[in-house]
Amino acid sequence: MNPPAVIQLDHVYAHPPSAVWKALTDPALHAKWWAAGDVRPIVGHRFTLDMGPWGQQPCEVLAVEPERLLQYRFATGTLDTTLTWRLVPEGTGTRLTLVHEGFNLDSPMGRRAFEGMKPGWPGVLTRLGTALEG
């Protein structure tokens, strides 16, 4: 039995935590860099993210610390992973740490999702930077 797999990435943006937080929690901005959905920084809030060919993925917000932490369960009932976004001021910018964890590598779906998302996340974080510029 494999332990649950984890993807962790850091990215520094030249924008203050308030701007990065808004991109993570404003549905219109969120749709520009990753997926459309009614994400809100409210613990217990349930929403879906439109993942295109992978369908609507149900999510539930688990933890919120404004401009510091947003955590939600992703693909509840199927993939059952957790996304944690941590924001730390760094100079005049923000260090964003993404942790996507809980992939069950013993299931074909979990392994496929991990193998697809691990190389995909860096591009998503780059698009977030582009959205912050726009």
Automatic annotation (TrEMBL):
Span of domain Activator of Hsp90 ATPase homologue 1/2-like C-terminal: 15-133
Matches recorded under Gene3D superfamilies: 3.30.530.20
SUPFAM superfamilies: Bet v1-like (SSF55961)
Pfam families linked: AHSA1 (PF08327)
CDD domains in the record: SRPBCC_CalC_Aha1-like
Domain of life of the organism encoding this protein: Bacteria
Family stated for the protein in its record: Belongs to the AHA1 family.
The protein, known as: Activator of Hsp90 ATPase homologue 1/2-like C-terminal domain-containing protein
Protein source organism: Corallococcus coralloides (strain ATCC 25202 / DSM 2259 / NBRC 100086 / M2) (Myxococcus coralloides)
